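Whether sequence alone determines local backbone shape is best considered at the level of individual chains. The sequence in question and its structure tokens are set out directly beneath this paragraph.

===
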Amino acid sequence: MESQSNSGASKSRQGRRSKSSRRQIDGIVLLDKPFGLSSNAALQEVKWLFAANKAGHTGSLDPLATGVLPLCLGEATKVSQYLLDSNKGYRARIQLGVRTDSGDRDGNVLAQHDASKVTDRDVERALQNFRGVIQQVPPMHSALKVGGVPLYKMARKGVEIEREAREIEIFDIALAGRDGDEIEIEVFCSKGTYIRTIADDLGVKLGCGAHVAALRRIQAGVFRELDCVTVETLKSVREAEGFAGLDKFLVPMDQAVEDFPEVRLPSDTADCVKHGQAVLVKHLPAEGLVRLYDEEQFIGIGSINDDGKVAPRRLVVNH
């Protein structure tokens, strides 16, 4: 789910640090994004704490959402696209009986119905409709752009336009708990999946309406919520130990793509790849993306060509 707002406070603080005082550091910070903070505000906060020269996130979370938000610093921004494209996992608390125009608790109430007769079996049966490859219509309250204008800006003006359904895949979706008219579900899905839309569609299938009351991302690619650190912890470590303590939280950038096969290159072959050449290497996979290493370290992402050679796709500069 994509964020719809940014915070200027962190930006202004970031702006007060001169470029000469920023550091060239490379790695990924696995942030447990707090409630109420936009993804961009979280990014600017962490960038400032680490005094990083460059930073980028890997797909926004709505301000109401918490959880796994990988933030890429320095050369790690070159692998951010692969995290953006990765599968995700969410835990959502869904309020039955109330439908909103945004699909979450921040929206205007459209309808209310009695949900007391909806059983767990009803919910489980309805959830079966979402498993596998499905078509999903993005919500109006989203950061997707039409004609260069984010949909949520149109929605705030009361404008609704036709949206084309997109193919997504739900690998697993299950009822994880219930408290009265609130249910908790866990969803493991492909990129671009809107949990708010799932909640709204679920409410329609149950005949009572529903919206997301709380949302937590529990997985992004290979990273999980137990791997994450809070902003408060980073601030405390920065104050007590300085950059030496903070840098211990940097995850090597190749961990973001550890699902890709590893290819080790001899020094001379690695030099060719670094100069943009495709090379023939023994025991390559038949196709797809690979992690490339020279004799010492990770050098980037490669792809297998039709002729069986590996070509550089996204190379990193090691400092």
